[in-house]
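Support reply, case 0932

Customer input (verbatim):
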Amino acid sequence: MRQGWWLVGRQPFRDRAASAGPVPVPLPGSRNAVEPPSSDNAQAVYFAGSMRTLLTLAVAGLVAFAVITLYALEGHEVVVLRTTDDRGATRDTRVWIASEGDHAWIEAATPEREFYRDLLAHPEAELIRNEATARVRAEPVPGPEAHAHLRALLRAKYGLADWWVGLLQDTSRSVAVRIVTVP
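Our regenerated output:
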């Protein structure tokens, strides 16, 4: 008999079984008896396996969604806008920024954003960009023209990230805010 590479140095299976002695067979109904799988049991095993697969796919999908969203939000230039609220407390908000000439633009996704309300009450703020802090004045520019202009600037700078975030946040009511450096 020719032996395959997996049998080199080993006895063939039938020889091992013969040398081990007789194999006890449990009697039907005994505690050690192995019942043939019923069709219900096979369906339950299949269902559990498919549920495990679905759960794995769902978790993988959620992780992929979180990673893509994190990259979309933080994978490009993000600045910190430090505003002051009515009580005098400071609020740091991470925002996207688009430069144009001697000023920059940021977006308040909705007029209800806390930092935007802070800017309406106290337009003087600090902008932390590339680890440098500058004193700035925020000038909200309402209207569809300013909104369209800002959206075009952000789309040009952030590309697919802007598209992805647009799927998650409706920016149809967003407000363009011009940021001017204060000497």
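We compared this against your earlier run and they match. Two observations from our side: Residues 39-74 form the longest helix (36 residues). Residues 47-76 form one domain. Please reopen the case if you see a mismatch on your end.
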